[in-house]
């Protein structure tokens, strides 16, 4: 009985340890961008921060887009220089500022040259709509069909 219990405990400890892999630059940037988007959604819907969020530009973060660094820098400037002092001191706005600063530093400093950008569609970060990106072989097929 004790051997079976020890085996089960040992098995679950290995399962737990296998899920504790350290985050890579990509996974951390991707996870943090999702956290920022979720926090922005909360700020836009929460009654105490809804008025503060009116001056924030619309942003759809995509770490695969090369324009994300400039858009993050511009968005961070707006958050840091909010015209209302009370909005700057709200806990959710402060948390948003910290998360955006962390994401910006991860993308520009820590993971510099580690992230691969698949697109440079700056309009997609503003609107959330991406245009289709065709590889060379697909583009050649489209040209032959015409």
UniProtKB/TrEMBL annotation:
Signal peptide boundaries: 1-20
GO biological process, one term: positive regulation of transcription by RNA polymerase II
Keywords: Signal
Keyword Signal listed: yes
Name of the molecule in the record: Cytokine like 1
Species of the source: Seriola lalandi dorsalis
